[in-house]
């Protein structure tokens, strides 16, 4: 048997597949115009008028002379592709996925050219990904559920190029609805993270229909608690315990860290709130002389650090920290890091939107552990009824 060079074999295989695909496409086109002439638009004044040839790029190779039938009146249009479409949508879809994966428009353009021999300028790639902006606008204004058991709020920074490169905030909101489904509700890019920025974010959530909220989980950004309570006065506030531990950790001497943090952990892992308060009293008496400021800070914030004890035990691990939304932020940073800096807000929005859509699709069919439990749902229903059945607060 004659040995065929690998590249020659590859070309032969590609040509064979392309030829077969061309035959099948042309067969479909013939059946399509036959149906059009005899069933859809039957008329004695119209008839077939041969065909014209065009190139068509597919994922299996380029068809250089696809025979497309036509009619004398020029009214027939195949449903297989648009009039001026020269390739399947797979390449555009691939470009969007590469962009989402953290490749710059210039890197995507070079990759496409090296793989397919098709020249794509960075501007062309940007124009293709620009189609995502229409989806973003629709997604950002979509109606939300009325009830959310939990809202997680967290921010991250991205580098954007304006006159100079600077870091700007991304406000990210994750919610768990009354069915226990977790999803990204929205994101907002621009400026520096502030309580006023969060106030506008929360107003938008409420305007889009999220009126009944039981709990907000976030870090200790100054003014954020007041902003949250202003928009959702019937909701509880849970300050992230993990953030608080991280903020305290550097202030403890190396020799005391293990014992201090071990004693502190007993507070927020106690069986219930009463036990947690009793444990904190012991913690306070042990450490207040050596670390008065740190212990006082915990004591002052203890009511909102222990809010999670008001909720069913099966969901406490999910609500005492912002870890769920921080994991999402970590993934976003990984996607954004290879880009160094983005050319504008729209570029950042594209990446974040595509990641948010993936996240929501992955979680759409799964309730968060503990939230679907009948006892938990009954407890939440009682909370909703107690707080919102006769809610007379005006919408912001």
TrEMBL record:
Transmembrane segments: none
Keyword terms: DNA recombination, DNA-binding, Transposable element, Transposition
One Pfam assignment: Transposase_mut
Domain of life: Bacteria
Keyword set includes Mitochondrion: no
Family of this protein: Belongs to the transposase mutator family.
Functional description taken from the UniProt entry: Required for the transposition of the insertion element.
Classification via NCBIfam families: transpos_IS256
Listed name of the protein: Mutator family transposase
Originating species: Paenibacillus glycanilyticus
């Amino acid at each position: 048997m004659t040995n065929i060079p690998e590249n020659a074999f590859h070309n032969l295989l590609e040509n064979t597949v392309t030829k077969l695909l061309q035959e099948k496409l042309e067969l479909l086109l013939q059946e399509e115009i036959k149906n059009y002439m005899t069933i859809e638009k039957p008329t004695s004044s119209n008839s077939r008028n041969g065909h014209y040839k065009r190139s068509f790029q597919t994922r299996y190779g380029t068809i250089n002379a696809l025979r497309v039938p036509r009619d004398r009146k020029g009214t027939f249009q195949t449903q297989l592709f648009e009039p001026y479409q020269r390739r399947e949508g797979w390449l555009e879809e691939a470009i969007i996925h590469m962009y989402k994966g953290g490749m710059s428009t210039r890197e995507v353009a070079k990759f496409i050219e090296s793989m397919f021999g098709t020249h794509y300028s960075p501007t062309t790639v940007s124009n293709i990904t620009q189609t995502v902006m229409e989806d973003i606008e629709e997604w950002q204004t979509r109606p939300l559920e009325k009830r959310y058991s939990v809202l997680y709020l967290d921010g991250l920074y991205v580098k954007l190029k304006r006159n100079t490169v600077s870091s700007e905030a991304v406000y990210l909101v994750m919610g768990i609805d009354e069915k226990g489904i977790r999803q990204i509700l929205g994101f907002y890019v621009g400026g520096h993270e502030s309580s006023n920025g969060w106030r506008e974010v929360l107003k938008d959530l409420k305007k889009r229909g999220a009126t009944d909220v039981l709990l907000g989980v976030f870090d200790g950004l100054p003014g954020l608690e007041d902003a949250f309570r202003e928009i959702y006065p019937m909701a509880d506030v849970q300050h992230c315990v993990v953030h608080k531990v991280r903020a305290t950790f550097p202030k403890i001497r190396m020799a005391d860290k293990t014992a201090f943090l071990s004693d502190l952990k007993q507070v927020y892992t106690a069986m219930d709130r009463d036990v947690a308060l009793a444990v904190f009293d012991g913690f306070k008496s042990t450490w207040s002389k050596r670390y008065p400021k740190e212990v006082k800070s915990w004591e002052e914030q203890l009511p909102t650090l222990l809010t999670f004890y008001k909720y069913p035990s099966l969901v406490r691990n999910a609500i005492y920290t912002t870890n769920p939304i921080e994991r999402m932020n970590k993934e976003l940073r990984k996607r954004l890091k290879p880009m160094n800096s983005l050319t504008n807000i729209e570029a950042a929005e594209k990446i974040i939107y595509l990641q948010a859509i993936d996240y929501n699709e992955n979680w759409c069919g799964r309730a968060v552990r503990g939230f679907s439990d009948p006892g938990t749902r009954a407890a939440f229903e009682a909370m909703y009824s107690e707080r919102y059945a006769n809610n007379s607060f005006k919408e912001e």
